[in-house]
Amino acid sequence: MIDAGLEVRAFFTTRHGGTSAAPYESLNVATHVGDDPAAVARNRALVEAAAGAPVTFLVAEHGIRVHTVRAAGEAVPPADVLLTSVPGLAIAAIGADCVPLLLHDAITGAVAAAHVGRAGLYAGAVDAAVAALLGMRQEKASLEALSASVGPAICGACYEVPAAMRDEVAVRHPSAAATTRWGTPGLDIPRAVEARLGELGVGRVLRHSGCTYEDAQFFSHRRDGLTGRHCGVIVCGVSLRPDAVTSP
User: Fold this and answer.
1) CA 27 – CA 14 distance, rounded (Å)
2) Which residues touch 209 (CB under 8 Å, ≥6 apart)?
3) What is the pLDDT of residue 242?
4) Edge-to-edge strand order for the sheet containing 66-68?
5) Residue 194 in contact with residue 205, Cβ under 8 Å?
6) Is the pTM of this model over 0.90?
């Protein structure tokens, strides 16, 4: 587990420390990739133990839909942003190259977990997550009270895309334009997410430097094809314990 660096308990998982067999070894938390459901259930229980709270995992649809979680164990529709203001509840964004984004509002205590890939970035998933948090406030206040942690994702040197796709995304997010290590068009989604958070006025933005394609401790769909998913987890209203997570 990797500390997300926020004021509440929040962390990113790696692919290690779970119970799934190859090609999902071992801490796969996704139910839609073909892994043994019993192994996924055990892995999610391990994540909940690390969080010290029941965790609701989002079901990504690569868009901007927001869902508010009000109780543990509730069924959630497909959505790329989960939001909760209920102390003691945890929410999680999953991914295996896309950005898991965690946010906290110090004014309301509300937290959000977002899945941001190329399509979601272009559609406005970062804006949707920030707007959802602001919508929990009773009155207007500065975005300086918001903090965000951008989790491990594929970097611009490894995410090769057609030139037309790069150019389309760059119209809205110029910082996303990249060139891969092979000299071909690329997209740097985590850099663009970080930049967009800054443009919106989020007070504190942390970014994990790991590239999922380059670093074997993470799942990478682009690298491996059939594989599992790691996640970013944030707990509402629970301060980070020093022994809750450890960096690898």
Assistant:
1) 7
2) none
3) 44
4) 66-68, 81-84, 111-116, 99-105, 146-150, 204-207
5) yes
6) yes
